[in-house]
Write a structure and sequence with these properties.
The protein is α/β, with parallel strands linked by helices. It is built from 13 helices and 15 strands. The strands form four sheets. Strands 7, 8, 10, 12, 13, 14 and 15 form a seven-stranded mixed beta sheet that branches. It has a three-stranded parallel beta sheet with strand order 1-5-6, sandwiched between helices. It has a three-stranded mixed beta sheet with strand order 2-3-4.
């Protein structure tokens, strides 16, 4: 079976099921596991990812106003891949190529492949996606074993966080400028990690928030996790935040509990490493109960 994956989480699932040799097309963002980087790139971005958060947002707004896609499909590479199954998504036209564009590209192929849209909003949806891909590719047993292991890791986190004397309030900043609170699975991860996300929208898209809302929420912990950003890129945006009125008075800042995490790897993707992301969050929220995460995964801002 020939496979193509048009989103990083799908690529991780394919490799996790031992199907890497069957994968013949990925996106420019598919970088995990490392072997994914050697696969032919079908989906390219037209967006300069070196731009600041404000510049990226401006470019996204312009693309919606003009109706131009942020992504480009290499039709020749796709045709050479001759996929029997394509993994894609319908959750966000900013984060990945749109479902409509994928359907258009499929229509030009000599043989129409099966199209599976991964629609995760919460952790249970991720588990279901793994099982679905396993069923369609003849890897049902491997998928079931994998999901069981992920569940056991999550159960272990919850068992420990129940021992915590305090559940800190948390603000997870999913975008810097304009400021956005977390959505979909992230508030659930915070809850499982032993915290309370007061501004996030569980199982729903992330939303814009005003800085005054953050100040009024008075979070004990501030997690910076811009979508698609690693730790160094996130840290580069901190000076902009420090210029905000009342930044120094925020409880999380006063208590030096502001952290930059690798959103690119652990929170932006609706894949199996959301469990890793929960383990990292638990360590940041309850450092007395969990081991310190790697600096490539999370870093204290102060």
């Amino acid at each position: 079976m020939n496979l193509c994956s048009f989103l990083p989480s799908g690529t991780e699932i394919i490799f996790g099921l031992g199907l890497g040799d069957h994968l013949h097309g990925v996106t420019y963002e598919c970088d995990f596991p490392p072997e994914a980087a050697s696969k032919p790139v079908v989906i390219k971005t037209l967006l300069d990812t070196a731009l600041s958060s404000r510049e990226i947002d401006d470019a996204v707004v312009r693309s919606f106003e003009t109706g131009e896609s942020l992504y480009e499909i290499d039709q020749e590479v796709l045709q050479a891949a001759a996929p029997d199954l394509i993994l894609t998504q319908e959750l966000c036209d900013v984060c990945a190529i749109s479902y409509a564009d994928v359907q258009k590209a499929m229509a030009a192929l000599p043989v129409t492949p099966e199209l599976l849209s991964l629609r995760s909003h919460l952790l249970e949806d991720v588990y279901n996606d793994i099982r679905t891909v396993g069923r369609l590719t003849g890897r049902e047993d491997q998928a079931a074993t994998w999901v069981t292991g992920l569940r056991q890791r999550m159960d272990a986190i919850v068992k420990i966080t129940r021992l915590a004397e305090h559940r800190p309030t948390v603000f997870c900043m999913e975008w810097t400028e304009p400021m956005m609170a977390s959505g979909h699975w992230v508030p659930q991860l915070v809850e499982l990690a032993g915290g309370e996300d007061r501004l996030g929208t569980k199982a729903k898209p992330s939303i814009r928030v005003e800085w005054d809302q953050v100040r009024k929420a008075e979070p004990d912990v501030l997690i910076l996790m811009p979508c698609g950003y690693d730790v160094p890129k996130t840290m580069a945006e901190v000076p902009m935040l420090e210029r905000l009125d009342g930044w120094a008075e925020l409880p999380a800042v006063r208590r030096r509990r502001v952290y930059a995490v690798n959103g690119h790897m652990y929170y932006s993707r609706s894949g199996p490493r959301l469990v890793d992301g929960t383990e990292i969050l638990a360590a940041l929220l309850h450092p007395d109960l969990f081991p310190v995460p790697s600096e490539t995964d999370a870093s204290s801002v102060y």
